[in-house]
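Sequence of Trypsin/alpha-amylase inhibitor (Triticum turgidum subsp. durum).
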Amino acid sequence: KHQLILSTAVLLAALAAGSASFRDRCVPGREITYESLNACREYAVRQTCGYYLSAERQKRRCCDELSKVPELCRCEVQRILMDGRVTKEGVVKGSLLQDMSGCKKLTREFIAGIVGREECNLETVFGRYHYCPSEYLGPEVVV
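Predicted 3D structure, token representation.
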């Protein structure tokens, strides 16, 4: 029992340490294209806020752009879409979803699954399971 608790604690600590290094290595404008952020934002908003027009085209565009992002950075794309990014000066560059207050929770849940088999079916740094763990994305995400 204690071994399981210790193993879980070590795994969570490693994941937390690793997520900070992903954020340092996955920079918007470099490894993460602004096109991937915008395409996936548009798709998520269309799917979760009631704007279903041409969703298949938006999905294709999001998945195509996300496939160009290195596996290491795909979960960071999702995190930035949901929470924004903190600059070196400590200024929060807001979530790309901040204007969607009426459907933000649904959008967060949807974005958490974009890399999954039902959507883009892309691998992440977490392997063939095609997901980004909620510990990495933040506690508000319900997958």
